[in-house]
Specification:
binds 2-acetamido-2-deoxy-beta-D-glucopyranose; signal; 17% helix; nine-stranded antiparallel sheet; At5g01610-like; at5g01610, DUF538 DOMAIN; single chain
């Protein structure tokens, strides 16, 4: 008999062992939020509740996982929706090819495909148009449901430039 099945079984066992080790060491690995900051992004573009993520540091390809999808209002006007899995490519000041993040503009749900940090502004692009928001709006992660306006939030409402005004 071939030894291949045993070899495969050992590999599977080893890889599950590795996965367990990674989980156990999770407190030492950076959180998705501190990782965002290392790419010069504010934590507030990612809602609270990320349970896991993976990142290929050579390409910047990432996935982030929530227990559930997540909806809230962006500074009182636009509704945002994050799927339970989001993905994209991250590099300094730039998130591209995003999937799983939508914004409701008027009556349409549009995918946010790119987020760029430009100095003190965050630019969210839905392909056909983009909108800029002050970075101060994203200093804290929003919570699913009440978003940035949860009662313990210390964020001040500040001036913003709405979607569609820039087209
Ligand atoms: C996600 O689900 C697991 C299992 O149900 C639970 O233990 C954990 O607290 C949840 N995490 C969040 C952030 O909701």
């Amino acid at each position: 008999m071939s030894r291949l099945p045993i070899l495969i079984a050992s590999c599977l066992f080893l890889s599950s062992l590795t996965a367990a080790v990674v989980t156990a060491a999770e407190s030492d690995t950076p959180t998705a939020y501190s990782l965002l900051q290392s790419y010069n992004f504010p934590v507030g573009i990612l809602p609270k509740g990320v349970v896991a993520y993976d990142l290929d540091t050579t390409t910047g390809k990432f996935h982030a996982y929530f227990n559930d999808s997540c909806s809230f209002n962006l500074v009182g006007s636009y509704q945002l929706n994050y799927k339970s899995t989001i993905s994209g490519y991250i590099s300094e000041n730039k998130l591209k090819k995003l999937t799983g993040v939508k914004v409701k503009v008027l009556f349409l749900w549009l995918n946010i495909v790119e987020v760029i940090r430009n100095g003190d502004e965050m630019e969210f692009s839905v392909g056909i148009t983009s909108a800029n928001f002050a970075i101060q709006e994203f200093l804290e992660s929003p919570q699913c449901g009440c978003g940035f306006e949860c009662k313990d939030s210390k964020l001040d409402m500040i001036e913003r430039i709405p979607f569609l005004s820039s087209s």
